[in-house]
Amino acid sequence: MKESRLTLPELSLIAGTRAILGGGVALLFADRLSEKQRRAAGWALFLVGVATTVPLMRLVLDKREPRAGADSELGS
Fold first, then answer.
1. Do residues 42 and 25 make contact, with C-beta atoms less than 8 angstroms apart?
2. Is-above-0.70 flag for pTM?
3. Which of 14, 17, 36, 63 is the most buried (most CB within 10 A)?
4. Residue ranges of the alpha helices (H) in 1-76?
C-alpha cells in the first residue's frame, strides 16, 4: 500500500475543488434558477471543479511513497 502526505493547504484545495464540483452538479439538478441560468452556472462550476481536480490528483499521486513497515505491495 502507498501513502501520501499532504499539507493542510493542499488538503484544503482538494476539499474546495470537491465542493465546487458538487455545487455545479447540484445546480444542474436544481429548480431555483431559470433553466438557462442554472445550466450556465452548473456547467461553469462543474468544469472548474474538473479542471482543478486533474493537477491536484497529479500532486497527490506524485507524493505517494511505500508505506513504512510494508514489505511489498504483493506481500512477498
1. yes
2. no
3. 17
4. 8-29, 35-62
Q: List Cβ neighbours of 66 (8 Å cut-off, separation of 6 or more).
A: 2, 3, 73
Specify the amino acid at residue 20.
Answer: I
Grid cell 482538494 — which residue?
14
Cα diameter, the chain? 59
DSSP, res 69: T
Cβ count within 10 A of residue 17: 20
Per-residue confidence (pLDDT) for residue 53, from 0 to 100:
82
The sign of the torsion formed by the CA atoms of 12, 17, 20, 25 equals negative
CA dist 67 and 2 (Å) reads 5
Q: Are 2 and 66 in contact (CB under 8 A)?
A: yes
Tell me the C-alpha distance between 35 and 30, whole Å. Answer: 9
